Structure prediction request, 169 residues.
Amino acid sequence: MRKKSTPLIHKLDAAFNVFTFSEKKKIITTSGGLKVMSNYTLIDCPTLDILIIPGGIGTRILLNNKKFLSWLILNKNINIIASVCTGSLLLAKAGLLSEKKATTHWGAMKFLKTISPSTTLITKKKYVFDTYYTSAGVSSGIDMSLHIIEKVLGKKIAKNTAKYIEYNY
Prediction:
């Protein structure tokens, strides 16, 4: 009997330890009502290789959270920092997009520019890399994530991941 091979997609489980963290270890209710329990706090969060900052209405609250912004500045040298959609506003507020190229959701372009006037905004691109990754809208985060998978694990695994989720990449 032939041994069944493990699909390349399962290598993602071994390669990435995915978890959430927040200022305090508590249940967070998303704008859609989904309840998420953070695994860690800003204080006990393990060392990160990759940080993905999601977008959404919650970013507006974090724009005034000095503890989070200070944490982000202190951790600006994480190997890969990426934002999805309006998560880029937090990178901008922390000063990380100063003098950089970036993108964000089309509806937040002007707002990002008011936060970080020296940022060069790129339109008509799904994602931009200039020290940090920024993606345009929610679905653009898929393209950016597949690019990051390719960078970390190789083109074959990125292509197989795209195939697995039935996404053209």
The chain has a mean pLDDT of 91. Residues 113 and 135 are 15 Å apart (CA to CA). The first strand starts at residue 21 and ends at 22.
